[in-house]
Amino acid sequence: MPLPFLHFRTLYHRISHSNTPLSVRKLMAAAVPISPSNTRLGWIGTGVMGQSMCAHLIRAGYTLTVFNRTPSKAQPLLDIGANLAASPHDVASQSDVVFTIVGYPSDVRSVLLDPNSGALAGLKSGGILVDMTTSDPSLAVEISAAASSKNCHSIDAPVSGGDRGAKNGTLAIFAGGDESIVKKLEPLFTPLGKVNYMGSSGKGQYAKLANQITIASTMVGLIEGMIYAHKAGLDVGLYLDAISTGAAGTKSLDLYGKRILKRDFAAGFYVNHFVKDLGICLKECEKLGIALPGLALAQQLYVSLKAHGEGDLGTQALILVLERLNNVSLPPLV
């Protein structure tokens, strides 16, 4: 039977159980294109980001099995056709590719590497793990090695773009791992945004951490400019419009400027998670022997938000710290 008409799992079974050398088997498996008709997907973590991302794949025609620690958060996905699993292990046992986007590195380790309930323990030979959480580069390398020992693959693919990027399918995806596997996964990345191959395992995480360092200082500059404009007697809304097409125009301004003036602090990206990310950045800076004072200042300011019990707000809530520091309050946008 010609190759295009062989069912994916039948073909992979023939490849993986033949006497063909492992390197050739991997190339043959990678050559089978991913499509809704031959690839079952799993998704672990259906929060602010994961829910929209997962929905894009369901609407693209893929069969998805999902898991969330709080099952009610997965209900909107079940309503559009997803299946609910009882554990990450159960997700993986029903999937060819498993995505994760959870909170912290400890969560990543638990949902992927736990020997009893983790996804890798339930993944069949040839399966692929795609971790989209911002996490430790060293953990990405560890997961990749563990997956390889089971004749599976792991890609670290953290994302940037916040809740709007997730909803609009315009995320920046930073991928680390085997380049041929990243290319194989492009049909799954395309509904989510633009994938950027950054290098070997862990390099996706390094790219995302550099991205967070850039965002942190940009957000501080945006907020300080708004405070200064207000104290100088400017209409802050007019000021933001004026700078948006100049050299100060940024994605952070586009995403958060008007939200701040509307006092909309709903999380597109949680302060708690940003504090986690910047903490990982500082730890990696120590390993690399570099000092980034802007990063250190931003971390202190965001830790202040968390200390005030505002960790579940969005990162744009940084305005609250500067308002307290300067004893001012920006007038809300009417």
Automatic annotation (TrEMBL):
Q: Which organism is it from?
A: Pisum sativum
All residue ranges annotated as the 6-phosphogluconate dehydrogenase NADP-binding domain in the record: 41-198
| Pfam families membership | NAD_binding_11, NAD_binding_2
Name this protein carries in UniProt:
3-hydroxyisobutyrate dehydrogenase-like 1, mitochondrial
Top-rank taxon, per record: Eukaryota
PANTHER family with a match to the protein in the record: 3-HYDROXYISOBUTYRATE DEHYDROGENASE-LIKE 1, MITOCHONDRIAL-RELATED (PTHR43060)
Q: Give the taxonomic lineage as stored in the record.
A: Eukaryota, Viridiplantae, Streptophyta, Embryophyta, Tracheophyta
Q: Catalytic site residues? A: 208
**Gene3D superfamilies assigned to the protein according to its UniProt record, in alphabetical order:** N-(1-d-carboxylethyl)-l-norvaline Dehydrogenase, domain 2 (1.10.1040.10), NAD(P)-binding Rossmann-like Domain (3.40.50.720)
Q: Which UniProt keywords apply?
A: NAD, Oxidoreductase
Domain called 3-hydroxyisobutyrate dehydrogenase-like NAD-binding: residue spans: 202-321
Gene Ontology MF annotations: NAD binding; NADP binding; oxidoreductase activity, acting on the CH-OH group of donors, NAD or NADP as acceptor
